[in-house]
Design a protein that fits this description.
With 188 residues, this protein is α/β, with parallel strands linked by helices. It is built from 5 helices and 7 strands. Helix 2 crosses helix 4 and helix 3 packs across helix 4.
Length: 188
């Protein structure tokens, strides 16, 4: 039996995304302005443009951007990636909205302490950004780094989820480059 892969285009404030899915299994989330990818579509699968249906992955993505949803009730099911990539993506899928994690911490959670650079590679290969929330990964010093959709989108997504500006664990902890503190004292 051949797979029936569906896709839908979801307009959002940060661009139009193409979601490729089978039922509740999300394979690809592509930003259309970057061009669409066929990576991750099952061989021999028939594709059809699907209307938005309540609860479908594209519908859930639209709800996320409207502010009506913070979690996804889908199976993040990329058909690409190494075992390492998949281990990292599984851990990343568990990072809740409004929180961030460093590359090093994510490597540790995936069982590969010291593999922060390799985690960066897994983020780069993530075929379903936002659903697999690679925008929630920040540098060890709090820098907004390594987001294939553009750092301005990463900042927008973190702001949308209430995680921007990043809050350090101590008042003198690391801040992302460019983040300013609010000094309410009068200037002399």
């Amino acid at each position: 039996m051949e797979a029936q892969v569906e896709f839908a285009e979801v307009p959002t404030p940060i661009g139009t995304f193409r979601v490729v899915y089978e039922g509740d299994k999300v394979h690809i989330v592509d930003l259309l302005e970057r061009g669409t990818s066929q990576t991750g579509i099952p061989d021999g699968a028939h594709q059809r443009k699907a209307p938005f249906q309540k609860g479908s992955p594209p519908s859930q993505l639209a709800e996320y951007f409207r502010g009506d949803r913070v979690t996804f009730d889908v199976d993040a099911s990329p058909l690409t990636g190494s075992e390492f990539d998949r281990a990292v993506w599984r851990q990343l899928f568990r990072v809740p909205a409004g929180e961030t994690v460093t590359y090093g911490e994510l490597a540790k959670r995936a069982g590969h302490s010291g593999a922060a650079r390799a985690v960066g590679g897994a983020m780069h290969r993530n075929p379903a950004p936002i659903i697999i929330p690679c925008h929630r990964v920040v540098g060890n010093d709090g820098d907004l780094t390594g987001f294939g959709l553009g750092l301005w989108r990463k900042r927008w997504l973190l702001d949308r989820e209430g995680a921007w500006p990043l809050k350090s664990k101590s008042s003198d902890g690391p801040r992302p480059k460019g983040q300013r503190t609010l000094d309410r004292s009068p200037r002399a």
